[in-house]
Write a structure and sequence with these properties.
The protein is 44% helix and 9% strand. The protein has helices at residues 26-38, 58-73, 115-118, 127-138, 140-157, 167-184; strands spanning 15-18, 21-24, 44-47, 83-86. A two-stranded antiparallel ribbon has the order 1-2. A two-stranded parallel sheet has the order 3-4.
Length: 185
């Protein structure tokens, strides 16, 4: 089986100011375009850095600004190559019908609040972890079956195996099982 999640070296995001706007440097767009073409990327899962409470903040705005530039200045993002914003922490909406959150009714004993330190969590997930989490969330039966097979194989050989995906199974699952799941919702 071939693993479709390939770890590539990180591309440091470099920006410059053009016409009073902060934009990605041209060579970054070219490098991303090259990766998309060389690896035949058909879609992307992008980390969505929400605050601890599940609210969007400045980091989410930066993600949207970067994606907006990718749409305008390149062919990296298009209708045939969609993007999914993925929050690896899977927040549930805790607001009531009036938009109130019970968490904000609890008095604080703090003398000072620093949003930069307290509201934003440190992003520890690398791109491959985000992709694996996305797959685990959308295809749990497949992942559980695969992990069971891998643990059986590891027990017999003494060597643990990494997460591998069978593209044939994934295509069959997407074609037949996903519509059934959607019709049950």
């Amino acid at each position: 089986m071939k693993n479709p999640i390939q770890s590539l070296p990180s591309i440091p995001i470099e920006s410059e100011t053009r016409g009073n706007q902060k934009v990605l440097k041209r060579h970054i767009l070219e490098e991303l375009s090259s990766i998309v073409e060389d690896w035949k990327v058909c879609g992307m899962v992008v980390s969505w850095p929400v605050q601890k409470e599940g609210w969007c903040g400045a980091p989410c705005g930066k993600v949207l600004h970067t994606l907006d530039q990718l749409v305008q200045d390149s062919s990296i993002v298009s209708s045939s190559r969609p993007v999914c914003l993925w929050d690896g922490h899977h927040f549930l909406n805790t607001e009531d019908e009036w938009g109130r959150v019970a968490l904000y009714g609890v008095p604080s004993q703090k003398l000072e609040h620093r949003a930069s330190k307290e509201q934003y969590r440190e992003e520890g997930m690398v791109a491959a972890d985000i992709a694996k989490d996305y797959i685990r969330h959308h295809w749990p039966e497949f992942v559980m079956n695969l992990e069971r097979k891998q643990s059986e194989k590891a027990a017999s050989t003494g060597k643990p195996k990494g997460l591998l995906l069978d593209p044939k199974w994934l295509n069959a699952y997407t074609k037949f099982a996903m519509p059934a799941k959607a019709s049950l919702c």
